[in-house]
Amino acid sequence: MAHIDAGKTTTTERILYYSGYIRAFGDVDDGDTVTDFMVQERERGITIQSAAVTFDWNNHRINLIDTPGHVDFTVEVERALRVLDGAVTVFDSSAGVEAQTMTVWRQADKHHVPRICFLNKMDKIGSSFTYSVESIKKKLHTKPLVLQVPIGTGKNFKGVVDLITNEKVTWESNSNEDDGRVFERKPLTSKDNPALLKEAKDARNNLIEQVADLDDEFAEVILGDLCENIDAVPSLQLQAAIRRVTLAHKAVPVLCGSALKNKGIQPLLDAITLYLPAPNERNQELLKHYGDELCALAFKVLHDKQRGPLVFVRIYSGTMKPQSSIYNINKNITERMSRLLLPFADQHVEISSLTSGNIALTVGLKQTATGDTVVSAKSSVAAAARRAEKDQGKNQDRERLMLAGVEVPQPVFFCTIEPPSMAKQAELDHALNCLQREDPSLIVKIDPDSGQASGTVLCGMGELHIEIIHDRIKREFGIEADLGPLQVAYRETIMNAATASDTLDRMIGGKRHLVNVQLTVSPWQQEASVSTPVISYAESVQEAALAQDMKNAVENGMHSSCLQGPLLGFPVQGVQVTVLSVAAEPGTSLAMISACSSRCTHKALKQAGCQILEPLMSLAITVDEDYLGLVLGDLSQRRGNIQEVQSYQDNKVVSASVPLANMMGYSTVLRTLTSGTATFTLELSSYEVMTSQDQSALLNRVRH
Ligand code: GDP
Ligand code: MG
C-alpha cells in the first residue's frame, strides 16, 4: 500500500520474479506487469484494481494484493486491508511520506494491520534514507525501527547493511541486464569503510535500545548478561523481539532498496516472513465459534466473460472445496460453487481444496457480494451460535456470527449516463449491474426527475473513477454511452427542530386506508455525518406497542424521505426523528403507512429549514518552487484554504482544503499552470455547511 507511483507494482513484479512465479519481469512503463492487467491500467501505467497473487518464499505461503494508490480507488485498498494480515508500505525515498500514504496508513490502523516500511527508489538522485525515516516518525506518528542502513545512495546505491546480522548485502552490478537474483552476503569487518562501520554500529545500538524500550523480555536479555557487550546480542533474540513489537503495533521495521534496479527485494521478502503475522496469530474472537468449520469473507467480485462472476474470498477457518454449496449469512441464501481457483492476477490455477489463511477465487456464486460472510451450511451458523452461547452464556444474534464487512466510501460526484439509443438501454443496465457488483463505490440510481427517458445516474469517487467506468462500458460491453456533465453530490441537513402531522385517507378497491402520523425532526448533533435518520419513539408510542411490521413500514418511509431532501433532492444527514404517534384504521396497507410516514417526514424537514452541505476536500499538491505562486494564486480563486506549505528539496508540498465544486477539471488546470510538473491528490475530508451566499448562488444556478 502507498501513494501513487511509490513503486508498489514494480516491487510486486520483482517479488514474483524472485519467488519463481514469473520468468521475466515486466515494467509498469511498458504496460506489461502481472498485476496491472486491465487495459486501462496498462495504458495509463497506474493500478486501478487490487490484484491478488499467491506465491511461496522460504517455506511460507504468501498471498499478496497489489493495491492502487489513487484516492478514486480507495475502496480497493479498504477491502484489501480488510482481509490481509499484514502490509508492506512502499515509499518513494526521495519524497518520504506522501499524502495518500497517510490515508492508507490510517486505513491500516483501523484494521489493526501490522506493517513493514520499504523505502524504495534508493537509486534516485535526491533519495534520502534519513529524511524518509524522519518523515515516517513525524507524519505517521509511529516508531520506525531501522533494520538496515543503505550502502551508497543515488547512482551508487549498492545494497544494505543488515543490522540484525551485521552483514553487508550487496548487488554489485548496476546494469539493467542484471536481474539482481545473485547478490552477496558478507559479514561486516574492520576492513570495511570506517564511516560505514561506524554508521552501522550506531544504528544497531540504536535499534537494540529502541527494541529494549518496547519489549520487556528483550530488555531483560540486554540488562542481564549482555549489558557489557551489546555487540554480542544474538540476532535470533533481536529478531524475535522485533517481531513481537511489530505484531503489537508498537513500532514498524524499516527496510530500503530499489525495485527498479533490482536491489533489496529478497531481504524485504525475508522480512515479510520474519515479522508479519501468520493467519493464526491474528486475534479474531468470532472465529473460535466456528472451530474447524468453514468461515470466509467475500471481498471482491470480478466479471469474467466466460465464467460469469468470480468471487474472491478470504478463508478464515475450515476448508473450501469445489463443487460444493455454501451458505451466505448476510443474504440468507444457499448457493453452489463450481470451481475453486488460486488467484494469480488474471491467470488462475484450478485447485481441489484450500485451507484457512488463504485467498480463493470461486466460480458459480451468483449472488454473493463484497462484504458477505459465507459458511458451509445454515446449520453451521446454528452450531456456531450454540458454541458462542456456551462460551459467553448469552444468546448470539446472527450479526455477531458474521465477519465485519467492507466499508464503502461515499461517492462525491455524479453524472447522468445515456445509451446511444433506447434499444441499448437494457444492455447498459446489464453492464452497470456487472460493474456495480465489482465496485461497491460505484452507485447507480434511477432519477425520476431527470427529465430524460432513461434517467440513469452514476455516482462515483472522482473524475478518474467515472472516466474509467465509462471506458470499461465501451470496451468490455461494447456500448458507446454518453455521460452528462459531472456534478457535485451535495447533502442536506436541518438547523432546527420541527413537528409535523400528516394524514393519508384513500379508498382503494372499495377498501379504506386511513393513517395518521405525527413526528418531530431535530438536528442529530452527536454524529452529524450519519446519513440515515436516527429514529426513536415517544413514550406513549412505546406503550401502545406498535406491531413490528408497522414499525418497519414507518421507518422505511422515514428512510426513503431522507434519501431526497426537500431543497435539491440530496440525501439528508444528521437528522433525528421522534415518532409521536401512529394511528391506522385496521386494514390499512403497510405501503400506505410507509407513504404517509415518508410524506410527513418530508413536511417536517421542510419546516425545519434545510441547509445544503457541500463536500470539502483535502488537497495536497507537490509543486516545483518556481510555480508555487501561480498555484497558490489559483487556489485562492477556488475558495481554497491553505493550511500548510512544506519544503522538500526543490519542491513545495501544499496542503489545503477546497470545496469540491471548485475543483472540477483541476488536473488539466494544474498541468497547464505548472507545465505538467506538479502532482496532486484530492480526498473527501468532510461535508460542511455552505455560507448563505454560496448556497443561494447554488440554488439559483440549479433551479433556473
Ligand atoms: P505504484 O503506483 O506504487 O504501483 O508504482 P509503480 O510500480 O507503477 O511505479 C511508478 C513509477 O516509478 C514507474 O515509472 C516505475 O518505473 C518507477 N519506479 C518504481 N520503482 C522504482 C525504483 O526503485 N527506482 C526508480 N528510480 N524508479 C522506480
Ligand atoms: Mg501500482
Write up what this structure looks like.
This protein is an alpha+beta fold and 704 residues long. The chain contains 18 helices and 34 strands. The strands form eight sheets. An eight-stranded antiparallel beta sheet has the order 15-14-20-11-12-19-16-17. Strands 21, 22, 23, 24 and 25 form a five-stranded antiparallel beta sheet that branches. Strands 26, 31, 32, 33 and 34 form a five-stranded antiparallel beta sheet that branches. A hairpin with a 4-residue loop joins strand 7 (159-162) and strand 8 (167-170). Helix 6 (194-214) packs across helix 7 (216-223) and helix 14 packs across helix 15. The longest helix has 21 residues, at 194-214. The protein is globular. Magnesium ion binds at residues 8-9, 47.
Pick out its properties.
704 residues, alpha+beta, 8-stranded antiparallel beta sheet, 5-stranded antiparallel beta sheet, 18 helices, 29% strand, globular, binds guanosine-5'-diphosphate, binds magnesium ion, nucleotide-binding, EF-G-like_DII, EFG2, protein biosynthesis, mitochondrion
User: Which spans of ≥5 residues are poorly predicted at pLDDT below 50?
Assistant: none
The small-molecule ligands in this entry are: guanosine-5'-diphosphate, magnesium ion
Please count the beta strands (DSSP E, at least 2 residues each).
34
Assess the beta-strand content as a share of residues. Answer: 25-35%
Strand order of the largest sheet: 15-14-20-11-12-19-16-17
Count of runs of 4 or more consecutive helical residues: 18
Alpha carbon gyration radius: 29 Å
Cα shape:
globular
* Rounded average pLDDT: 90
Instruction: Tell me the span between the first and last alpha carbons.
Output: 45 Å
- How would you sum up the major sheet? 8 strands, antiparallel
SS-derived structural category: alpha+beta
Keywords: GTP-binding, Mitochondrion, Nucleotide-binding, Protein biosynthesis
Catalytic activity: GTP + H2O = GDP + phosphate + H(+)
Protein name: RRF2M factor
